[in-house]
Amino acid sequence: MDKLVIEGGFPLKGEVEISGAKNAALPILAATLLTDERCVIKNAPSLRDVSTMLKILRSLGVKVQMQNSRIVVTPSGYNKCVAPYKLVSTMRASICVLGSLVAKKGYAEVSIPGGCVIGPRPIDLHLKGIKSLGANIQIKAGYIIAQGKKLKGCHIYLGGPFGSSVLATANVMMAATLSKGVTIIENAACEPEIVDLIDFLTKMGAKIKGRNSHILEIEGVKRLGGAEHTLIPDRIEVGTYILASAITRGQVSIKGARLEHLGVLIDKLKEMGLTIANDDGIISVKITKPLKPINVTTLAYPGFPTDMQAQMMALMSVTEGISAVTEKIYPERFMHVSELGRMGAEIMLEGPTAIIKGVRQLSGASVMASDLRASAALVLAGLVAKGRTDISRVYHLDRGYEKIEEKLSRLGAKIWREKE
Ligand code: EPZ
Q1: What residues act catalytically?
Q2: How far is residue 21 from each of residues 42, 47, 155, 161, 197, measured CA to CA in Å?
């Protein structure tokens, strides 16, 4: 197993190029199961999660080729409908093949995703939506068995205790594209990754209204064709590099980003005192005055993204004054707090809220990654900490960040990978 080693204290300088969005790639690859025709996905990131999704497609009998950041998917006549436990248990997002399979093949057997360290992640909304379209759903031996030859459009309210669900919206929308009649999804998620999926499905011939809104209207069609699509940039990767520049008091420009996807995150960073400019798609970040403490609350898009919460906490831990983070999407998503504490951060948890008292200096230590975004927070802390930081279990990081140590090294960070 690998670990990452970081010598902290070097301000980041230079330009970094952003990869395609992991959370757009996964549902879009699942959507290729809705057609028999060839699809080409461009700007695809080389990540562990993407290769897991390709393995699932192959296990269903789909031909898949990935070269550089281009994926060619040839689903013609795939003949299996089982997404096995051994793959699904490594990546929860595998659940989003359920909607495509039952809509295209009338049958799907998808392992129920296991537990997750960021907190309870039920799938009731996925099942409610697919059932509403007329599929018969059974749970057997840890698998969801969905059967439904003639899915029919209807009105679905897809809201849970924490608001809309990104992948439930994706799953139900994909199934509705081949269902008879019109489906209305109320309280749909409208993350940029959902909009990217809508754009891909529309290129395949789907009829979807309500792009960028919480109400989607899908008119079912008999069949969908192949399509070529370039994925949007990864807004969470953009956010992570903006914070890497800020925490090291550096000056970084970020290429290939879409600032409009970052909405409230940019507002909050400006409130802290960061200067963020956008020059023709190149975002530049610099600090001209001491940063101020702030409060953030995570919400569904366009609210503050929960996938930036841990990285934000790392920056707050070295920002003088008292900051607060309230986690409204995954109230237990605080695995990074104790590890940041090992580096000298002062963070107190009160239920879903973390109170952060900024310290002058963090110190390098051996810490353990627990999930994707928590590991990104530990990398940021290691970049600013005094001395050496060793981050173990970095396989979490490889799930969602393409070539992170190469990109950071090019910006002047002292970071390398070692065998544990
Ligand atoms: C997506 O997960 C992202 N994953 C997650 O990013 C992200 O944290 C999350 O959206 C929220 O933004 C991908 O896109 C692959 P949800 P998803 O369903 O769709 C509750 C990362 O780091 N809920 O929107 O699984 C749920 O428990 C990952 O890249 C139900 O109650 O998340 C949560 O509290 C981590 N019932 C809330 O909704 C359901 O059936 C939002 O979850 C489904 C969800």
Answers
A1: 116
A2: 11, 10, 30, 27, 11
Check pLDDT > 90 for residue 51: yes
Is residue 187 predicted with pLDDT exceeding 90?
A: yes
| Dist. CA 107 → ligand 1 center (Å) | 24
Residue 67 pLDDT > 80: yes
Residue 362 contacts residue 385 (beta carbons within 8 Å) = yes
**Distance between CA 235 and CA 257 in Å, rounded?**
7
Write down the pLDDT at residue 121: 86
Q: What is the rounded distance in angstroms from the CA atom of residue 380 to the CA atom of residue 36?
A: 44
Query: Measured from the CA of 301, which atom of ligand 1 is nearest?
Result: 12
Relative to beta strand 322-327, strand 295-298 is parallel
Q: Is 238 in the pocket of ligand 1 (CB under 6 A)?
A: no
Evaluated on CA atoms 405, 407, 410, 411, the torsion sign reads negative
DSSP letter assigned to residue 304 = B
Q: Ligand 1 pocket: which of 28, 48, 165, 326 to mutate (most atoms <8 Å of CB)?
A: 165
Q: How far is CA 216 from CA 61, 152, 174, 231, 280, in A?
A: 31, 16, 12, 21, 31
Q: What is the mean pLDDT of residues 221-234?
A: 98
Does residue 337 line the site of ligand 1, with CB under 6 A?
no
- For the Cβ of 331 lying below 6 angstroms from any atom of ligand 1, the answer is no
pLDDT at position 114: 77
- Does residue 32 contact residue 74 with C-beta atoms inside 8 Å? no
The answer to whether residue 116 scores a pLDDT higher than 80 is: no
